[in-house]
Amino acid sequence: MLYLDSGRAEGVSDEDLGMLTVMANVAAMRIERERLAEVEKAKQFLENELQQAADIQKQCLPEGSPAIEGFDIAGYSEPCRTVGGDYFGYFPIGDDKVWVIIADVAGKGMPASLLMMNFQARVQVLAQDDLDPATMATRLNDTLCSVCPANRFITAFLCRMDGKSGDIAYCNAGHERPLLVRADGTVEGLSEGGPIVGMFPKMPFGVGYSSMAAGDSLVLFTDSVSEAQGADGNEFGTDRLAELFKDRGDAGAETMVGRVNESVQKWLAGEAAHDDVTFVTVVKKD
Fold this sequence. Notes:
Elements: H1 14-59, E1 71-78, E2 86-93, E3 97-105, H2 109-126, H3 133-144, E4 154-162, E5 167-173, E6 179-181, E7 187-189, E8 193-194, E9 208-211, E10 217-221, H4 223-226, H5 238-246, H6 253-268, E11 277-284
Parallel strand pairs: 5-8
Antiparallel strand pairs: 1-11, 2-3, 3-4, 4-5, 5-9, 6-7, 6-10, 10-11
Helix pairs in contact: 2-3
């Protein structure tokens, strides 16, 4: 605000008011420029903070594939924002056994990212104990119920695999059913387990069992893969995902990860995914 006073009898003239208006406009532009500079500075600070959070989150995901006798394993994860709520991990048990885990936190962005990192830290500790998948799911649920807000929860698939025998013990905690694609083209969905994690304390979880023979493939994925919408509004679907593995040939896990990603991106027809995209492929070797 500018204030103008005059001791002259005729008071303030139109010329005086015109000059005052020019001065006010110049001052307003300077003030607005400074305000915008502060807004840009705050925006840049937030972007830097988010990028650092994204870098930390990436360190929670596996680098490369684990060397497990009998299995070829690879995974992929891409958040739809700078940070996301999807997770996958491998935890070897000796040379021929491994935990393979995938999870999806409800929601997106920073809140989902914080819960994902909480989940990852707890899984990393529990994977060191000699637990069955149902016990791990129970412990995860009981501890996460105290930190999950009322509108948040986690779906997870916890799988303990034996590379020598091909045996699988798993717990599906409200997650998308992984597809076990046999070498002969038949497909099985792994659904045994229990409810979502982090919302209902003291819930029971069960263990499912299966096995893989040479040439079989197992694909774990979050709902952003099966529900990816094409230009016509139709979803990518699990049948289309299974077909990719029926036609796998002798392609390894890393190659199949690339094929799945390429197929999903093609289905999206150039549109950005509306959710984090994560999947893991396990191929049973001879």
